[in-house]
Amino acid sequence: MPVRSTPQLNPNNSSLLRGGGVLIATNNSLKPRPVTLNISNVEQTFVLLSFDSNYLLIGGVYLPPNSPLSVVESHVASVEQLISSYKSQSIILCGDYNFPNVTWSSDELGLIATNDQNMVTTSIIDSFSYLNFFQHNSLPNSHGSILDLIFSNSNKVTVSKATDSLVFPDPYHPPLHIVFPLLSDDFPGSTHTYKDFKEANYSVKFF
User: Fold this and answer.
1) Residue 14 clears pLDDT 80, i.e. is over it
2) Residue pair 178/94 in contact by the 8 Å Cβ criterion
3) Of the four, 18, 120, 122, 166, which is 20 to 30 A from 66 by CA?
4) With the CA atoms of 147, 36, 27 and 57 taken in that order, what torsion angle do they form, in degrees rounded to the nearest 10?
5) SS3 per residue for 73-124
6) pLDDT, tens digit, for every residue of 113-148?
7) C-alpha span between 185 and 157 (Å, rounded)
8) What predicted TM-score, i.e. pTM, was given to this entire model?
9) Which residue in 108, 93, 113, 95 sits closest to 180, CA to CA?
10) What HEC string does 155-175 produce?
């Protein structure tokens, strides 16, 4: 079947010789629309797919190990901008975030991260909780860490280890099989409660 690929390799993001590069390949029957962003310090790519009257925004990102806060904030700002601009009902964001010491989960209040929390991971947690995202990948690599994260505004996404892969599997990145319930009757009505710290009035003094 014919496919259209949307690659993104950004030398401004990393000088490492290994890793990096982002590609989204889609079937042309899904009417893919590549999304262009004027951000040069993040390896990321986005595409909008059409399903009848529904739209699915897919994103792929690579954050090098120990990425500075400015890179992560640029990625977060990109996601927030696209969601605001395109108003797509369905969103899935996949990528190598390189947070090996963080344990991810979700509850009714949004994303939860334990262990190695810092300003970088907190930036992701605060923004993606605000966007009603869940994190769905719980499959560790051969070193016992989870580098590849799957975020979505649907809590019905399932992630399992793929039995087939397009390339030889990397021990740091096991191939994943992701099922997205685009036509689920429960979506996008399924929501969860979160704390909206961005809209808090920090100028008010309480005594």
Assistant:
1) no
2) yes
3) 166
4) 60
5) HHHHHHHHHHHHHHCCCEEEEEEECCCCCEEEEEECCEEEEEECCCHHHHHH
6) 888 778 999 899 889 989 989 999 999 999 999 999
7) 14
8) 0.80
9) 93
10) CCCEEEECCCCCCCCECCECC
What average pLDDT does the chain have? 81
* Rounded distance between C-alpha atoms, residue 23 and residue 47, angstroms: 10
Q: Measuring CA to CA, how many Å separate 54 from each of 57, 86, 170?
A: 10, 12, 34
Asked if 122 and 102 count as a contact pair (C-beta separation under 8 A), the reply is no
The Cβ of residue 9 has, within 10 Å, a number of other Cβ atoms equal to: 13
Any idea how long the chain is? 207
pLDDT, tens only, 163-181: 888 888 888 999 999 998 8
